[in-house]
């Protein structure tokens, strides 16, 4: 046997081994999802990293069409134009598969702070393109999870919250400003006035407008990080689409539970934690140093350094977050009196993140996935015991209400596992959850 034949034989043997590994990984995952096999502490499945890497596609890949969508709402008086309400634009991309794998079902993806829809569409080191994953190798494509999930036959709407999307490359981080009306850069006074009223209520209404206009299906709503709040708010604030269940990666909990967790685990007082946000009408601007400090850097990031990560993303990722959004999400209610004074808004427009009604989880299943290296959602609090890891802490609060719950822990992944290597595994994991867990 010559050298080339030996190489081909080794390749065939490896492919057979990988397929067997994949089948075994799928069997174990489905058993954990459907029967509770191998669960620990009631609802936790610790997934081996080899299983994550080799998990096969739960459906055959199909081609996908992509369409830009955009809607506008008007909310809150504009002090510079008496009698006029501010316009807020919300943008997204709708991915429609050529063949649907599960009827009457779609996924809505909402980014966290300082990101936008591109977080789910592309990866830092991948192409800024929409390859046909039915005709290419998904494992080497390095596209975002929205493209992977859509190619498995699930419609996806990836959303950019108001101010976070631009059709042009963003200027340097220190200079960029939110485009609350896409294509328009606000002046100093307008920027300050808008940031004073950049509430979760406004964003909730904008999300509803986009979802209801462009999706008729029942939906899963995956909010990453700060975006995770919206799933808990949508029903009580009138979303017409049915919410099937709770889906999350790096998602977390409603702000009022976050406050409980902070009081139990945080080393600083509420006043100390809120201090950086006292300039209420400002933006938090991201930096490589800040990402490293937050624990967002990990071993499964093929782009290399955190500086390279920013270099690759800066043209399309806003890299800023309104302070008020941070304040409401992080439960800094010690600032509420000052917020009411500056914004002029009534109580029912502020801190709606405290209004999430867990009773609305009744009849719903929850499936959350967390990276083992996610500092905020998995590592912090762990020194006090498993029950104080943030995702576990939240699930303990959800348990009296939810129909069923699964929390899957994946090794090596950080808070940004959805853009790291092997992210097709995350898509396969989520879609397997749709097929075997939620629809069972």
Summarize the structure.
This protein is of the alpha/beta class and 440 residues long. The chain has helices at residues 3-34, 49-54, 118-121, 138-141, 145-151, 188-195, 200-214, 255-265, 270-274, 288-293, 306-313, 323-329, 336-343, 375-379, 390-398, 423-438; strands spanning 44-46, 64-77, 85-97, 105-110, 156-160, 218-223, 243-249, 283-285, 320-322, 365-371, 404-410. The strands form two sheets. The protein has a nine-stranded mixed sheet with strand order 1-11-10-7-6-4-5-3-2, sandwiched between helices.
How are the SSEs ordered, and which strands pair?
Blueprint: H1 3-34, E1 44-46, H2 49-54, E2 64-77, E3 85-97, E4 105-110, H3 118-121, H4 138-141, H5 145-151, E5 156-160, H6 188-195, H7 200-214, E6 218-223, E7 243-249, H8 255-265, H9 270-274, E8 283-285, H10 288-293, H11 306-313, E9 320-322, H12 323-329, H13 336-343, E10 365-371, H14 375-379, H15 390-398, E11 404-410, H16 423-438
Parallel strand pairs: 1-11, 4-5, 4-6, 6-7, 7-10, 10-11
Antiparallel strand pairs: 2-3, 3-5, 8-9
Helix pairs in contact: 1-16, 5-16
């Amino acid at each position: 046997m010559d050298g080339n034949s030996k190489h081909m034989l080794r390749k065939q043997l490896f492919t057979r081994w990988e397929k067997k590994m994949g089948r075994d990984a799928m069997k174990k995952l489905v058993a954990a999802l459907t029967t509770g096999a191998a669960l620990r502490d009631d609802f936790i499945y610790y997934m081996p990293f080899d299983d994550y890497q080799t998990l096969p596609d739960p459906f055959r890949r199909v081609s996908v069409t992509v369409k830009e969508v955009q809607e506008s709402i008007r909310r809150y008086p504009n002090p510079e134009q008496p009698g006029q309400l501010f316009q807020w634009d919300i943008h997204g991309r709708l991915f429609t598969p050529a063949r649907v794998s599960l009827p009457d079902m779609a996924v809505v993806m909402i980014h966290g702070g300082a990101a936008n829809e591109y977080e789910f569409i592309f990866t830092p080191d991948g192409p800024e393109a929409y390859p046909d994953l039915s005709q290419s190798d998904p494992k080497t494509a390095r596209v975002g999870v929205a493209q992977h999930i859509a190619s498995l036959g699930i419609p996806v709407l990836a959303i950019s919250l108001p101010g976070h999307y631009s059709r042009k490359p963003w200027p340097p981080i220190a200079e960029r400003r939110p485009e609350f009306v896409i294509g328009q850069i606000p002046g100093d006074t307008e920027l300050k006035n808008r940031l004073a009223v950049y509430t979760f209520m406004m964003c909730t209404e904008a999300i509803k407008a986009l979802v209801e206009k462009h999706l008729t299906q029942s939906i899963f709503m995956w909010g990453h990080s700060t975006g995770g709040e919206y799933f808990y708010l949508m029903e009580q604030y009138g979303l017409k689409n049915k919410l099937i269940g709770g889906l999350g990666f790096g998602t977390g909990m409603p702000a009022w539970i976050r406050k409980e967790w902070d009081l139990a685990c945080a080393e600083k007082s509420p006043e100390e934690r809120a201090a950086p946000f006292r300039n209420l009408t400002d933006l938090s601007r991201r930096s490589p140093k800040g990402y490293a400090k937050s624990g967002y850097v990990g071993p499964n990031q093929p782009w290399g350094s955190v500086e390279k990560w920013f270099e690759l993303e800066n043209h399309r990722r806003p890299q800023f977050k309104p302070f008020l959004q941070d304040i409401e999400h992080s439960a800094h209610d010690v600032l509420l009196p000052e917020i009411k004074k500056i914004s002029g808004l009534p109580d029912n427009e502020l801190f709606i993140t405290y209004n999430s009604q867990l009773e609305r989880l009744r009849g719903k299943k929850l499936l959350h996935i967390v990276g083992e290296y996610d500092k905020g959602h998995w590592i912090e609090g762990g020194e006090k015991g498993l029950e104080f890891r943030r995702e576990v802490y939240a699930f303990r609060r959800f348990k009296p209400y939810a129909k069923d719950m699964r929390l899957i822990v994946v090794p090596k992944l950080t808070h940004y596992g959805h853009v790291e290597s092997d992210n097709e595994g995350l898509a396969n994991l989520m879609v397997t959850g749709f097929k075997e867990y939620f629809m069972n």
